[in-house]
Write a structure and sequence with these properties.
two-stranded antiparallel ribbon; 26% strand; 94 residues
Length: 94
């Protein structure tokens, strides 16, 4: 979505964007570029396919934009999901 919006704003001839993701779990020790070295980590491989008469420069810029989208940035960051507090339903206390 971010890529399509960017291309539309620039009036580039992008007709379609296809994103393919492949998820796997790998041993952290097998990942040379990863900080974590123990246990297993999630690995998400992705490919982009652009349809339209784009130049090589435009395609390269769209890849850069894709790496700045909010979803991509969230997946690349450390994610902390705390255990939620349990709140009693107030209707049962009446």
């Amino acid at each position: 979505m971010t890529v399509a919006l960017y291309a539309r704003r620039k009036a580039w001839p992008l007709e379609q964007v296809v994103v393919r993701l492949r998820h796997s779990r790998i041993h952290a020790a097998d990942c040379a570029e990863c900080e974590t070295k123990a246990g297993r980590i999630d690995r998400v491989e992705w490919t982009l396919q652009f349809s339209g008469t784009l130049t090589g420069t435009q395609r390269a810029r769209l890849v850069e934009i894709a790496q700045m989208c909010p979803v991509h940035r969230t997946l690349r960051s450390e994610v902390h999901i705390p255990t939620p507090a349990v709140v009693e339903d107030e209707s049962t206390n009446s």
